[in-house]
Every structure is written in C-alpha cells, then in structure tokens.
Amino acid sequence: MAEAAATAGAGGSGTRSGSKQSTNPADNYHLARRRTLQVVVSSLLTEAGFESAEKASVETLTEMLQSYISEIGRSAKSYCEHTARTQPTLSDIVVTLVEMGFNVDTLPAYAKRSQRMVITAPPVTNQPVTPKALTAGQNRPHPPHIPSHFPEFPDPHTYIKTPTYREPVSDYQVLREKAASQRRDVERALTRFMAKTGETQSLFKDDVSTFPLIAARPFTIPYLTALLPSELEMQQMEETDSSEQDEQTDTENLALHISMEDSGAEKENTSVLQQNPSLSGSRNGEENIIDNPYLRPVKKPKIRRKKSLS
Amino acid sequence: MPLTGVEPARMNRKKGDKGFESPRPYKLTHQVVCINNINFQRKSVVGFVELTVFPTVANLNRIKLNSKQCRIYRVRINDLEAAFIYNDPTLEVCHSESKQRNLNYFSNAYAAAVSAVDPDAGNGELCIKVPSELWKHVDELKVLKIHINFSLDQPKGGLHFVVPSVEGSMAERGAHVFSCGYQNSTRFWFPCVDSYSELCTWKLEFTVDAAMVAVSNGDLVETVYTHDMRKKTFHYMLTIPTAASNISLAIGPFEILVDPYMHEVTHFCLPQLLPLLKHTTSYLHEVFEFYEEILTCRYPYSCFKTVFIDEAYVEVAAYASMSIFSTNLLHSAMIIDETPLTRRCLAQSLAQQFFGCFISRMSWSDEWVLKGISGYIYGLWMKKTFGVNEYRHWIKEELDRIVAYELKTGGVLLHPIFGGGKEKDNPASHLHFSIKHPHTLSWEYYTMFQCKAHLVMRLIENRISMEFMLQVFNKLLSLASTASSQKFQSHMWSQMLVSTSGFLKSISNVSGKDIQPLIKQWVDQSGVVKFYGSFAFNRKRNVLELEIKQDYTSPGTQKYVGPLKVTVQELDGSFNHTLQIEENSLKHDIPCHSKSRRNKKKKIPLMNGEEVDMDLSAMDADSPLLWIRIDPDMSVLRKVEFEQADFMWQYQLRYERDVVAQQESILALEKFPTPASRLALTDILEQEQCFYRVRMSACFCLAKIANSMVSTWTGPPAMKSLFTRMFCCKSCPNIVKTNNFMSFQSYFLQKTMPVAMALLRDVHNLCPKEVLTFILDLIKYNDNRKNKFSDNYYRAEMIDALANSVTPAVSVNNEVRTLDNLNPDVRLILEEITRFLNMEKLLPSYRHTITVSCLRAIRVLQKNGHVPSDPALFKSYAEYGHFVDIRIAALEAVVDYTKVDRSYEELQWLLNMIQDDPVPYVRHKILNMLTKNPPFTKNMESPLCNEALVDQLWKLMNSGTSHDWRLRCGAVDLYFTLFGLSRPSCLPLPELGLVLNLKEKKAVLNPTIIPEAVAVNQEAANNPSSHPQLVGFQNPFSSSQDEEEIDMDTVHDSQAFISHHLNMLERPSTPGLSKYRPASSRSALIPQHSTGCDSTPTTKPQWSLELARKGTGKEQSPLEMGMHPVASAPLSVFTKESTASKHSDHHHHHHHEHKKKKKKHKHKHKHKHKHDSKEKDKEPFTFSSPASGRSIRSPSLSD
Questions:
Q1: Tally of structural domains, chain B
Q2: Contact (Cβ atoms closer than 8 angstroms) between residue B950 and residue B971
Q3: Domain extent for B559
Q4: More exposed terminus of chain A, fewer Cβ within 10 Å: N or C?
C-alpha cells in the first residue's frame, strides 16, 4: 500500500503531465507509469493466488487502480487547498481515504503482511534536465538592500559588457575610400533593386539589364519634389547649421509663428482673433501692429434682399 | 462721325510734346471687373465688367473695346441694350483657303490685323453701338456706363488654369489660375481697353471657393462670405489710375505670408512651399529700401503682393501692386546657385513696379523708356548687391549679346517712328516681322530690345551723370504720383504716362545737357558699331599711332562719329585719351608719356592708383606700352577687335584691374597658345582676389590653349595640379576634400574646373585617360555630409564634365551600336549616368538638375555614336507631368535628334506638342529650340521640307496660335528659319496655275467687280446720301501703287489687306447690314440701326459690300442663315460674266509675259490682288474663323 500511495502522488502528477500529451517525454512517462501499475496489479493477483490472467482483465484492473489512486490524489489536493496549503500532508491523505470509505487502521497491517511481493522500483530514466544555460562567471549575490527572496541576478553574460578594441582605421584615405565605395554599393544595389522591381527603360535595344534606367514617371504635382528639400537633406541641414544659423532661425521661427497664427486666425471668427494679441503679445509686442488685409477675418454676408453687384 | 474723332487723334499721337492725346474718342475713368464664378473643373469663368466712360467728341456712336476669347452675352449702356459686333482679324490672319505661303505676305497681313484691333490706334475687336436714345446724352459729353456680361470657356491664353489630376477638392489638389501673357494681353480674359495708355481706377471682385485666395491689384478692401458660406468674395480697390494691361489675377489655395519686415507686403505660394517662400522672400525688403532710396520716392502703391505659381508663362511678370513669379524660383537656404537668380528676379519685378506698372507708356514706341529705366535701376541694384565687378561683367555680357544679335539680324530699333504708314518707310525692313506692334515682335527681338534699352540708359547716365539721371526719374515719379492722387481729374492722369519726348525733355531740363546726338544714334537708329583697331609705336616721335577702322556696311552696323576713349597703360602709368572719331580720320597719334623706357626697380602705377611690380622681361624693349584699351567704359554700343601683341594681352590679364579688360584679354589669348599665356592664365586661376567669373572663363581658355599646344605640353593635364592643390586632401591628393561650399567663389571654381578639364584632348583628339579617371574619382569621393549647402549643382556639373569628355566613337561602317562594342571609358561614364539618373528617382535633387544633366549627357553619347540614337527615352521625359526643366532638356534632345536624324516622325511629334501641350512656356520653348537648332534651313535640301509641313506651319501661325502672341511670333520665327521670307522652295511653283485654280474656286462663289456695283447701286437706292459716282470705283490703293512699284509683289497684297482692314474697322460698322436683315429679327440687338449708320457719309463705298457681308457674317444668327440664298441669288447672275472677263484678262497677260518681262510682276500682282480681294469677299460666307463662329452664338445667347 505504501507503493500505492507513493504511486498515487506520481499518478496525480502523471495525469497532469499526461494531459498535456504534447511532448514526447510525457508520453514516455505515461507509458512507464502504466507499466508499473500493471506490474502492481499482476503481483497483487499473484499474491491472491492467480496463476494467470487475461490481458483484458489486467487492463481493467489497472484502469480501476489508476482511477482509485487518481481520486485519492485529487481529493487530497482538494483538502490541502481547502486549508490554504499547497502541499498535501499525511492527514489530508488520511481524511481522503476515510472519506472514500477505506479503513485506515488496516493499512499498516496490510503493509506489513508477510506474503507481500516486493516489486522493484521502475527504472528511473534520468529526467531530461534542461542543460544549464551557459554560465559565465559567478552570479552576483544580492546587494544588501535587495531582499533575498527576490530572484537572483541573471547570468553575468547577459549584462556585463566586455569592450574589445581593434586598432581603428586612422588612415584618411582608406576611410574615404571605404565610405565612398560603401555608399556607391548601397546606391547601386538600391537602384538595381528598384529597376528590377519596376518598369525600366534602356539605352540599348538588345540589352535591358546592364544599364537599367528606372522608367520616368510623371508626377501630378511635379514642382513639389523638385523644390522641396528631401528629408535627408533637411536632417543634414539641422545637423550642420545649428550653430551658425541660430540667430536666423530665431527670427524665422518668429515669422513662422506669426504666419501660423495668422493663417489659423483667418479661419477662426473674430472672438478668437481678439484673444490672439494677448497671447502673442507677451512674446512680441510688434505683432499687434500687423494689419494685413489677408489676415482679417472674412465677413459674414449682410442680409440683404437683393445683392447689389453680383 | 466716328472717323473724325479717331483720325486726328491718331495723327497727333506721335508728338507727345504737349501732353497726351488719346486715340480714342472717349476717356475711361473707372472700370469694375467682377468675376463671380470660376470653375476649375471646366476651366471656365463667368463675370461682367462695367466701364465708366466719358465721351470726348459729341457724336460718338461707336465704342471700340478689346476682347478676345471671351463670349459676350450682353452689352448694356446706361441700362439700355446695345448692339455689338465682335470681329477679330488676328484669329485667322490670312484666309485659310489662300494659297499664299510666303512669309512676307503673312507678316504684313499679321501686322495689319494687329493694328486693326490695336487700342493705341483707337481700334478694338468689340465694337459697341451707342443706342440712339443716348445720343443726346453723348452730345452733352455725359457719362456712359458700359456693362458687359461675358464668360470664358477653357481659355487658351490670358488666363492659365493649373489643375493637377489628383484626388480631393480643388484646394487640396493645389489647383490655381492666374493671368498671363506677353505685353498687353488683358483682353484675353475680360473686355477692356487693352492699352497701356488708357488709365482708370479699378474695382475688382472675385468670388472664389472658401478655401482659395484671390490675389489681385490694389487694396483688398474686404472679404465676404457668400450666403451659403461656401465661397468668399474678395473686393479689391485700385485707386491709382492703372492701365488694363497691368491688371492681373491669381487664384489658388495659397499659403499666406506677411512679410516680417514690411507688413503691407504679402507673399503667396502654393501649399507646402511656405518654408521656401519664407526663405526666398526674406531678402525682398532690402530691394525695397534700395529703390526707395535711390529714387527718393516711396513705393507708389499702398501694398505689394508676390504670388508664386506653377506653369508660369514667364519667370517674372509685374503688374500694378503685384508680381507673379514662377514657383520654381523658390528655394531653400541650402541652394547656392538659385539664390542670386531669384533675387535678381525679385529686384527686376520691383523695378518694373515703378516704371512699367505705376508709370505707364504713351505708345509702343515709348516702351524703351520704361524698359530702359527699369533695367537701369535694376542694374544699379545689381551693382550695390553683387558688387561693381558683377555689374560690369553683366554690362559686358549684355553688350556682347546685343552686339551679336544686331550683327546677326540687322539691328534693334528702340524708338520706331512710323511716318505716313507706307511700307517703304518701314524702319525694320531687314526683319521678317513688323516692329510696329509689340504683338508682332519676335520674342528674341523683344528680349534684345529690353537689353539695348537699359544699355542706352546707361549711356545716357554716362553723359549726364547718375545724379541727374536719378533726378529725372524722381521727377517722373513725383509728377505721376501727384497726378495719381487727383482722383476726379482724369485728364491729369496722362502725367502718369511716359513718352520719349517727355523723357528727353526732363533730361534736358534737369541736366541742361543736350543728349540729342546720343538719342539719334542709339534710339532713333538701329545698329551697333564695329571697330577694328591696331597700332604701331613710333619710337622716334615717342608716339603711339593708333588706327581705328569701322565697318558700317554690314547689316546691323552703323557709323559712329564722336568721342572715343582710349586708355593706354605705359610704364609710367595709365593715361586716358579721348579721340574724335570722324568721317575720314583713321589714324590717331597719341603721344606717350614714358620717356625713360626701362626704369629699373620702379613700380608701375595702374589706373586705380595702385602701384605694382611687374616682370617686364616679356615686353618689347623699345616700347613703353604695356597695353591699350579702346572704349574701356563701354560708352558706345560696340564690338571692338583690337590687335596687340600676346604679351600685352598677358599684362592686361594680370595687371588690369577691370574685369571687362580681363575678360577681353582671356578671349584674345585663345589665339596665342604659348607657355606665357598658359602661365598668365594659371596665375589668374590661382589668384584669390581675382573675380570668380574671370577665373571661370580662364579655365575654358586654358583648356583651349592646352589643346592647341598638345604636342608641346609638359606636365600633368592643365588645371589638374591646380585643382588638386585647391580642393583635394593634403595627405591623399587623389581624393577631393569633403564638400564645404562656404566660400562661393571657390565653389564656383570647383564646379567649373572639371568641366573645362574634360574639354582637354590628347594628340589622338581623345580626352586623356588621366582626366577621365580624375573626374570619375571626383564623383566617387564626393561627400556632402558635412556641407551646409546642397551639392546638386556641383554633381550636375560633374556629369556635364563627363559629357564633355566624350569624343566621337570610332565606328566601322555604320555598325550597329551594341553593348559589346562599347568603349570601356564610355562604359564607366554610362555607369555613373545610370546610377545618378536612378538615384534621382529615389532622392530627387533641387530642380532635378542632375536629371537634366544626365539627359544631356545621354544625348551627347548618342550623338557621338556610342549609344544607339533613339528619342524614346527623351520623349518619355518630355511628357507633361515632369518638372519643367527636365521637360525642356528632354525636348532639346528630341529637337537635336530631329535635326541629326532628319526624322519626320519626331518633328511631327514636336509640332503636335506645340499645339497641344498644356504649358504655354513649354510650347514657346519648343518653337524657340526648333528655331535655334532647326532641322533644316532655307538654303538646305532636306527630305523633311515638304508641302505638308509648310501647310502645317502656316496653319499654326495663321490660326493655330491666335491665343498667344508670343507663340505666334515664335511660329513666325521658325517659319522664317525653315523657309525664309519668300515662298518655300519645296512648294510647286507655277503661280499662274495657282491663279487659275483659285479662280475656278472663286468664280462660283464670288465675283469681284460687278456685285460691288450692284451693291453700291442697291445702297444708292436705299440710301440717297451715298454718292452715285462711286459705282464701279476701283480700289485706289492697288491701282495707284501698281504704278509706283513693280518689284515687290507681296507688298501690294498686304497694302490692300491693311487698307481693307483699317477701313473695315474704322468705318461705321455696317451700312449695308440692314439690307439683308428682316427688320423684325434683330431690332432688339441693333435698335434703329439704319437711321444711325446709313446717314453717315461713306467715303470709300467700294468696301461697303464687303463690310456688309462681313457684318452679316460675323453677326449671323441662326435665323439669318436662311437669308443667304436670297442675298447671293443676284450675285450668281454676274458670276459667269466676271469669270469670262477674268479669263480673257488673264490670257492677255499671258501673252505679254514673254514680251515684257519687266511688267510681269506688275500684272501678276494685279491679278493676285484681285484674287485676294475676292477671297476677302468670300470670307463672310465661309464661317470658318472661330471669331465668326463665336459671335454667331453670342447675340442669340443674349436673347
């Protein structure tokens, strides 16, 4: 019975792991447990004096045994959880057995019966332990201000950097050479790709691949692409001229501010416009003076019976 | 009696001495233009105008206005319906069935047609009859208000719609519309008096979509929503009297920027371009300040607006208080090259605001004053902004341009005077167009005209000093502003018009100097002066013997008599001498100052007081002369070819401080390929203080010299080591430094040097391998990451350099160009071009400069036989939708292909584009490029030259381009280049056969002589006041002139044509009209017509029938079409008779032809003339011209 109880725990966890039935080790485990139970049933039958048994009946008995043990495990778990614990104790098992109508007192005697057959423990296949991740150096211990129950530090290699130095290329010529050829390669590859994926034109009738020209495509608004600087250039501009053009950008920003406010104001009605000077006035008094007819609000039509001109 | 009103005024107009006399029998004081609907989808405009007019003669019963393209629905005068006739002879200059194909004929006819509607001659396309109810009112010279409802549908000129085809509302799509045109073109978009001399105040109203802005002239008074709040109306008032031709309009979803320095100045640009606008216009206030300061006069208008639009007609167009610019002038702070160009455009437009918009001109012949003054003050601005060097360089450039043009075409006349109107007196008989009107002028001529005008202003300045000059301008401006403030005294407004005589009078008043000889030489006379100079030094007398010859016999030249400045640089200093150029004196002795010839270790004083050390070893030991300059101040419009020794040119280049002198010496040194020249040029190149443009041209000269000295050249290719030293890294000389364009001078030099180097050739006439590798390395190592400026222009020039290095392929018997036999160098070049061109698709450069250069380079490769010649690529880039610079570059390649490969197909493709392209500038440019690089010329045999092409081009200039003066004149230029003045040689010649053919056609339709008689008879019957003696009267013009001249057959035609048109338009419109018209049908339109018109005595009734027909034709309403059979029925009776008489007449001539060769022309001419007049007679029956088509509709629509 001790084995039965022992296997009950294993069975409980076994069903759980078996229920996953997703991994191969679990399947193996399931089969092994089943075989162990069969051995148990067979030995009990031998003990009871049977010479032989049909496979089907052994199977049935095995099934019954498994159910029983599973039930013990399940109930025991329920009891233990009922008392807000995570691990079942002996008393949980006892209560379970009692609840299932088993006379617990008979158990020690049964366990010590003379004719009992001892079955060897099933060969424990080495749990396929996940190999420990590469450890590089010692895990750092927690510093004093971190309570010890906190998780350990991860392996040092995940956060420790080891700077390596190679002699930098200081030769200007090589650098320029490299930059140039790199850029050229990128451009070439990019344009070739674009040419391959889109329509092309060719200078030679017989050959379209050596000098593929991306086909000319008209724009709907051609002046925009032609006049506006590309984002790349804009970015470049910001990088290069931040120091020199400070003054200028300041005034420009001011102008921008004016015009933005103005164009905004144009759409708003009068009341908003009246607020505006107070807002901007703090920044620059001059703005108040701007009286440009294009910034004035649009008038509402006068209610007239007849339009005089139009 | 309208004639009496018109004619005297026209006579007096020329002499503007005592104020301005209007050619019109009325004075316009105010005009309202109201456009209440603009449809971008349909490209249509609906609106009305109202002109307030004061009659100046008592019996005014016709009012002529200008209007083209507009559909006129209704005309009311003081609320009374008024009849009107719309007739525009410029729509179809020569009748479509005319077989005439010679340009002389066309040009004369075109000039006649233009003057027939010229507002400065009191004419107009639209003739409105004053309702008889108002006659009394008119006799009291009381005000008339002419109200005209009109619409415009898909205008082809005058207003240009840009509607990008993308999703979204019109505002989101960036759709816009703007007015455009060449000279006075306002008549294309609303009826007006389209003259620069008729000033009035304006009220302008435009109702547009709420998301759009309408920008127009004058002050924006208010903006009001319409009742549905979906549109707004912009109300503008222009209180300064302004000519209609200076009225403009731009409507679009513009972004608005108030100038941060001048709040009354507002800038507008298309969506998304605001940052560029901000940068571009940030400079404008300085231009304002400059002009206001030098003119000591405030900017005349109370506000100023700049609008930047797409698909611009011209880069800069100045109108009253606003200027319209091409959006392509906008640029960011990273762009170097465009910045000075854009600033120049801004300054130019502002100068024209003062002279051109505010001050207008009296007549076309006074145009030079305005163009001259605005160009001159623009030059002053240049001098202040870009420095004296740039200014002098510009003057030299302009001088060279005008000299080259005049010598090529035979003269530009600034102040044409047309006495008597006889073609014999035509001052510009050497040209293939008339210079009587701005609208008949070739565009190139007009640009040269402007160029000459400002140069002449500069000559006047030289004569009277700048101070006086500015005083004169100030005087003109203050007179004008006084006049402009006289709100209700419209007679004062003529003070705002400038005339040649008024201007000259101001000059003599202010300066007290007589500049008449100068004016006579340069303004009243065309041509430039051509000097040839050489010298000898007489050692004994210590005298410089200078010989100056003139060529005044070649076309475009004139004789110069007067002072001429000569500067002689001697060892002891620089001395100015003023020579008197006289009729017969060629030689001039100039005493030299330097006695001590070779004073060792002495510094040599220069003109500017500087003293320099010179290495004098090169010079002639006997002569103290270093160099000599003729007319150093460019105070004569001239070309100088001066001979002096090479070392003198070299000294001049090194030590003369004037950039013009340096430029001249560089040009001269090309002829002296010696090591000394090489050294002088290299020194200049290296000299930082030297003007960058001089250094740039030294590059090209050096390349030429190197090529001439190729066998003796030592050392690396020219400029290579120089470039390496200046722009490459110290440590690795084959790698260029990372770009830093902070110093613009060296930037320009860096850009130019490789382009010049690529022109180097070795002994095999190939570009040296070393140079090509060098350029390829420049491209490879180009690194712009650290640069504050964009390198797009630099990279573009590198591609130009690659193109320059290409030499003709060695080809074996026209083998087909394939990849396999591609030259390895060319392969490298092609690789670069491919990569650049493809990168442009991903990262486009500013204004696509790189694409432009790539396209040019590809054409060069094609032309040199490395790549198969094929226009397909260019054609795809020439499509609408590409940036305009790309299109022009691609079209240029196609034009070149057309010439080289003589492709009829491409020529047709180009011609179609001229007709159909949506962008007027592109159409103009194609014509221009075809003229510059013609597929064939008049003296050439070409398979392209055939009758169909002649017809096609003829049609293009005759009727296909009537909506754009500039385009039509461009077509005329092309026709002239291809076929010359006379009949194209490819046409079947026999003129007599032609006459017969014509006759057969004509005879059926329309006999000439007898119906006239009938008509007159009829008229006489109807109208007792007409003279019976006129029956059978012959055309006095043709008969009398046949007597006088016999050689020029075309002139007669044109004479007849002109007189015909003039008569037609000056006459009271339709004396015979009532005859053919049922009295009931049109009484509303032409109320009481017969009484008003027929009582007018007709001076030349032989025209009356034509007029009658014309009248009916033009005004034909569907109702009346049925009337024609009735009208023509009696004519047919005479048809046979006339045919017969013609026939015999003709035979007669035929006989005589053999005997009297002399008389041949005359007779032939007579013939032709008759046929022409018949043609004209026929005209009303054909309804082929769009004018008649349109006006047929207009009256019926108004019902």
A1: 5
A2: no
A3: 531-636
A4: C
Distance, CA of A35 to CA of A47 (rounded, Å): 18
Rounded-to-integer distance, Cα B755 and Cα B778, Å: 12
pLDDT value at B1136 more than 60: no
Q: Measure the N-to-C terminal CA separation of chain B; round to a whole number of Å.
A: 29
Mean pLDDT, rounded, for B1143-1163: 44
DSSP B745-769: HHHHHHHHHHHHHTT---TTSS--H
Do residues B404 and B557 lie in contact, with contact meaning Cβ atoms separated by under 8 Å?
Answer: no
Cβ proximity of B86 and B126 under 8 Å: yes
Per CB-CB distance under 8 Å, the chain A contacts of B332 are 228-229, 237
Q: Which CATH number fits domain A26-110: 3.40.50.80, 3.30.200.40, 1.10.20.10, 2.60.40.1930?
A: 1.10.20.10
Three-state DSSP at B307 gives strand
The mean of the pLDDT values for chain B is 81
pLDDT digits (tens, 9 = 90+) for B223-281: 999 999 999 999 999 999 999 999 999 999 999 999 999 999 999 999 999 999 999 99
pLDDT for B513-536, tens place per residue? 989 999 999 999 999 999 999 999
- pLDDT, position B381: 97
Residue B426 makes CB contacts below 8 A (sequence gap 6+) with B418, B434
Would strands B144-153 and B322-326 be described as parallel, antiparallel, or unpaired? unpaired
In the stretch 177-236 of chain A, residues with CB closer than 8 A to chain B read 177, 179-181, 184, 187-188, 190-191, 194-195, 201, 203-207, 210-230, 232-233, 236
Give the domain CATH number at B305: 1.10.390.10
Angle at B198 between CA B196 and CA B199, to 5 degrees: 100
Q: Which is nearest to B440 in space by CA: B1027, B973, B1148? A: B973
Closest by Cα among B1112, B1091, B1076, B1105 to B1195: B1112
Higher pLDDT, B124 or B1103: B124
Q: Report the relative pairing of strands B360-361 and B497-498 from DSSP bridges.
A: parallel
Contacts 24+ apart (CB under 8 A), B1007-1010: B1007/B1131, B1007/B1134, B1007/B1135, B1007/B1137, B1007/B1138, B1007/B1139, B1007/B1174, B1008/B1138, B1008/B1170, B1008/B1173, B1008/B1174, B1008/B1177, B1009/B1138, B1009/B1141, B1010/B1134, B1010/B1137, B1010/B1138
Surface of A (79-138) touching B: CB under 8 A: none
List pLDDT tens digits, range A110-127: 888 887 777 777 666 666
Q: Are B242 and B217 in contact (CB under 8 A)?
A: yes
Q: Is the ipTM of this complex over 0.85?
A: no
